[in-house]
Amino acid sequence: MCLVVIGTGAFAMDMAVGGGLMYNWSKTSGTMENIPLPPYGIFDIDWKMSRNGFGAFGFFGFSQYAEINVGLLYKNPSTMTVTVLGESASEDPDLEATGALQLGIYGKYPIPISYAFVFFPTVGIDLEFTLSSSDEWWHDLWFRGGVGLDYFLNDRLFVRGHFIYGAALPLGGEKELGLSFTHGLLVKVGLGFML
């Protein structure tokens, strides 16, 4: 598919490369079923875990309307809330921090505001592949949307900011966790160069 795009006029329109830093906050939920809690009995346990992450990313815009992203993210679990029979308690998630590889493709629609500023709504998909050797960690398939802003320092060099929110399907992990849903915020700031 990339070779087809490269062979068309679209490849010559506003190609850009760049990279920068990112911050991610997300919350994952699930239900662990039929958990024995002696001497009370067997219960379903609902849980929610939040985490913070930070890392670096790179992007390649092969037209003014689409770009490919790659990133490395450090995921750090922070708090876990466990609910049984309507009673909630906070616990240590007992899950080690880990790295993750992000691969994504995004569409955007640039709207020039002035000579220096270009605003753009954006939507896309990211695969977040967790690099931990622990079976308890999982991967996420993200569906994200938000806005971005480019500030041009000159005709070719620009500063880019992204503010994106998304929902994800957790993939893998221990079946006992009963993973169901992840959602969260992704913020990116970086430098880009028009080719």
Q: What are the defining features of this structure?
A:
195 residues; mainly beta; Porin; 8-stranded antiparallel beta barrel; 1 helix; 3% helix; disordered N terminus
Please characterize this protein's 3D structure.
There is one protein chain. This protein is mainly β and 195 residues long. Helices cover 3% and strands 72% of the residues. It contains one helix and ten strands; from the N terminus they run H-E-E-E-E-E-E-E-E-E-E. It has an eight-stranded antiparallel barrel with strand order 1-2-3-5-7-8-9-10. The longest helix is centred in the first third of the chain and has 5 residues, at 2-6. Mean pLDDT is 88; it is low at 1-13.
Write a short abstract of this structure.
With about 200 residues, this protein is mostly beta strands. It contains one helix and ten strands.
